[in-house]
Amino acid sequence: MKQNIDPHRIDAFIDGELDLASQLEIERQMRVDGDLRERVEGARQLQAAVREQADYHEIPAALRERLDDFAAPKMAPKAAPAARAPRAAALVERWFGWRPAAAALALVGIGALTMNLATMQTSQNDRLLDEVVASHVRSTLGQHLVDVASSDHHTVKPWLSSKLDFSPPVNELHLPDCEFLGGRVDYLDGRPVAALVYRKGRHIVNAFVWPSTAKDSKADFATERGFQTARWSQGAMTHWVVSDVNREEFDTIVRAIQSAESAK
User: Fold this and answer.
1) Which one, of 142, 128, 100, lies nearest residue 220 by Cα?
2) CA 235 to CA 262: how far, in whole Å?
3) 10 Å Cβ neighbour count for 189?
4) pLDDT in tens, 127-137
5) What is the DSSP string of the chain?
6) Which pTM does this prediction carry?
């Protein structure tokens, strides 16, 4: 049955601003409501297009310093900000040859654009973090932990490659009390991804992977709602790992995945 969902809630869902229960509820509704799914995917594609195709220009260092000085709160008379504004506008005017009024508008616009781009990137990362944790929780609570159950990567890798538009790296981790359970096709960041599933003791570990154009990077660790997470780029692939194991064991698992990839 279709449900009318407030458009503002849909926007919050796309931006990763909902709590976990609300996010899971909308994801459940998307599986049965084609119109809702189409609206969400359309909005995600638009967001991705803006992020990937917009032109970005680095602000000159001198202008950045002026903007920081202009925006920074200071213990000064009330007239001080007004006095700083003409000086900052004059600087922009000298660079671009605009009249003072236009230069002042450019100053405000550049500052707003810088903050908006930073906010957009932060929002994107937060949204993806929420998606990763939600997918992990959903897989452990439901009956869809793996699509192909096997501890042999020679079985799992060909199966995933046949279902995806890329061939994911699949590794068996040779760690104490660690078992490779298999893999499944999941959906993150607006696209199908590979999910590799491990069991460490009594804990489930989900390792998500999909193609990336980013340069190799170190793992960025975070804790979200009691779950350990790590993300990094390696070998033209984006990696996200999530589990509720303790931090020491989680670090060991992440290093094992990275080492297995480096050894290829």
Assistant:
1) 128
2) 8
3) 16
4) 899 999 999 99
5) ------HHHHHHHHTT-S-HHHHHHHHHHHHH-HHHHHHHHHHHHHHHHHHHHS---PPPHHHHHHHHHHHS--S--TTHHHHHHHHHHHHHHHHH---HHHHHHHHHHHHHHHHHHHHHHHHHHHHHHHHHHHHHHHHHHSS-S-SEE-S-HHHHHHHHHHHSSS---------TTEEEEEEEEEEETTEEEEEEEEEETTEEEEEEEEE--SPP---EEEEETTEEEEEEEETTEEEEEEESS-HHHHHHHHHHHHHHHHT-
6) 0.59
If we measure between CA atoms, which residue out of 257, 210, 221, 217 comes closest to residue 234?
A: 217
The tokens for 259 are 């080492």
Place of tokens 């195709």: 53
Cβ pair 167, 173 in contact under 8 A: no
What are the pLDDT digits (tens) for 83-103? 445 555 555 555 444 444 555
Q: Are 204 and 197 in contact (CB under 8 A)?
A: yes
